[in-house]
Amino acid sequence: MSPAQLPAQLPAGSAPRPLVALISATPASIPPVTAAFADAFPDAVLWNILDDRLLPEAEQRGGVTDELAQRMGRLIEHAVREGADAVLLTCSLYGPVTAALREAAPVPLLPPDGAAFDAVLRSGHRRILLVASNPASMNDSRRRLLQQAASEGLQVEVDAVVVPGAVRPALEGDQEALTEALYSALLPALAEHPDTGAVLLAQYSLAPAAPALASELGRRVYSSPQAAAELLHQQLTAGVR
């Protein structure tokens, strides 16, 4: 799908409560983003669109190919055509797909972690610990975070920790096991770099552990679902993109 193919406007008769389409590549992303909206934007009506082959196929093909990017584009187009007032991708690996479509979209179209990137870079911390459960998501998120920092003239150090042991508890919704897996992996990294000011969870599926990690680690822990819900609440209630 090209930007020109996005519908020019929403269908008439849209619901009075804003409809937010959440496009996910794993069911593990849905509970964290639902909880974030319940807290930050309870008036939103959430519409979950799930393609659980997007991640496995990206792994098989060595990344997000043009074909997979176009597939995500078609899901975005579907959401807009069917009346979504905003579209939020919840898979960090597919976040770059929004770049080519965002300006042409008639509604707010958010990458998964754009709001979280803004928040952590505005925080003033100059060493950030980025956490993901797989290398592909880590590499993509770290590259984009550093690019954004450079574009804003900010000097930041972004350390990376990949925690494969977080995958299963995230999928199973086991928040205690998820927190323990992340905590155990983060302690050595924080000991090596005690000047780390903030932790950023790169994936929505890791977000349920954020409050407990912040308490146990004694550092601010940023999660993408909460930041995105807060931003969309601001945009949709103020009528701005």
UniProtKB/TrEMBL annotation:
Family: Belongs to the HyuE racemase family.
Listed name of the protein: Asp/Glu racemase
Residue stretches spanning the membrane: none
Top-level taxon: Bacteria
Any one Gene Ontology molecular-function term assigned to this protein's record: amino-acid racemase activity
